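User: Here's a structure from my thesis project, written as structure tokens. My advisor, Dr. K., wants to see whether a designed sequence matches the one we expressed. Can you design one independently, without my sequence as a hint?
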């Protein structure tokens, strides 16, 4: 299960004082922070809107943080591959807008996450 929390006691080293995205593997009893930089480091902006694929290996989320070294003024959609331990930005900035998109909950939401 993927979820958002501002709790600082879910994983060691969570000191960024913002909401992060986490993955809870109930059967294994483990919790992993998903909203990380492309290099696996802690981010500084709030994240939300977690969506996970059926296999539990890919999590999409939105964040105001500079997750991939491509800072923008608005929230962007990112995908964290838990197997490859990598994060990529899906949204591309609109000309003159500086980025921005939100993972939706409407009829088309979740298509990306159907793989697996």
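Assistant: Designed independently from the structure alone:
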């Amino acid at each position: 299960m993927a979820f958002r929390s501002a709790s600082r006691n879910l994983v060691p080293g969570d000191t960024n004082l913002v909401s992060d995205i986490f993955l809870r593997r109930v059967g294994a009893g483990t919790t992993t922070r998903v909203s990380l930089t492309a290099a696996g480091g802690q981010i500084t902006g709030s994240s939300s809107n977690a969506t996970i694929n059926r296999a539990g290996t890919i999590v999409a989320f939105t964040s105001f943080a500079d997750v991939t070294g491509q800072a923008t003024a608005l929230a962007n959609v990112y995908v964290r591959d838990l197997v490859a331990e990598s994060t990529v930005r899906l949204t591309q900035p609109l000309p003159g807008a500086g980025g921005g998109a939100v993972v939706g909950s409407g009829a088309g939401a979740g298509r990306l996450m159907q793989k697996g």
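When you compare it with your expressed construct, this may help: Residues 1-106 form one domain.
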